[in-house]
Amino acid sequence: MRALGKDARVRKRREFLQIQNAGRRVATRHFLVVYVAASDGAARLGITVTKKIGNAVVRNRIKRAVRETFRACAATMARGVSLVVIARDGASRLGVPATAAELAPAFASLSGRRAPSSSGAR
User: Fold this and answer.
1) Residue 10 neighbours by CB under 8 Å, 6+ apart
2) Which end of the chain is more exposed for a tag (fewer CB within 10 A), N or C?
3) Residue 4 to residues 35, 45, 95, 109, 119, Cα–Cα distance (Å)
4) CA torsion 106→108→114→118, rounded to 10°?
5) What does the longest C-alpha to C-alpha distance in the chain come to?
6) Alpha carbons 31 and 49: distance in angstroms, whole number
7) What's the Cα-to-Cα distance from 5 to each of 25, 26, 42, 44, 45, rounded to whole Å?
8) Full-model pTM
9) Tens of pLDDT along the chain (122 residues)?
10) Residues 6+ positions from 107 with CB-CB distance below 8 Å
C-alpha cells in the first residue's frame, strides 16, 4: 500500500467547502460522493468522517478503505476531478471489499463509464 501524494489529496478546509458547495452529488447507501470537475491534473480525493460514526480507530479504518478504493479506480477517473467522500452511518460496519464494491460504481460514474456489476442481473 502506498500513500497518496499531496497532489492527489484535497487538503485545505477551503477546498473541502468549495467542492461541497459547488459540486455534484452521487449517493450510495453508506457514502456521499461530492465531485467537481476542476482544471487539468490528477484526480484528487478528500475524505470526511465525523465523530458520530465512531472512535478514531473506526474513522481511520473507513478512510483507509476509501483511499484504497480510490487508488484502484483513479486510473479510470476523468483528469482534473476533485472529490470529497463523506461517510454516512453504517460505514463503520463495512470492510475494504464491501467499501470498494459500494464506491467503485460511484467513482466509475464520474468518468462516464459503468463499473462492472458484481451481481449478474440488473
Assistant:
1) 16, 19, 44, 45, 46, 82, 83, 84
2) C
3) 18, 9, 20, 22, 30
4) -70
5) 42
6) 10
7) 25, 25, 10, 10, 10
8) 0.84
9) 567 777 888 889 999 999 899 988 999 999 999 999 877 778 889 999 999 999 999 999 999 999 999 888 887 777 888 999 999 999 999 989 999 999 988 888 876 544 444 444 43
10) 33, 69, 70, 73, 76, 77, 115
Q: How far is CA 83 from each of CA 4, 93, 107, 121, rounded to the nearest angstrom?
A: 14, 23, 9, 29
| Architecture in CATH for domain 7-111 | 2-Layer Sandwich (3.30)
User: What is the C-alpha to C-alpha distance for residues 2 and 62, in angstroms, rounded to an integer?
Assistant: 16
Shortest CA distance to 45 belongs to which of 16, 13, 17? 16
Backbone φ and ψ of 91, nearest 5°: -65, -25
In the chain, alpha helices (H):
13-22, 56-73, 96-111
User: What is the identity of the amino acid at 24?
Assistant: R
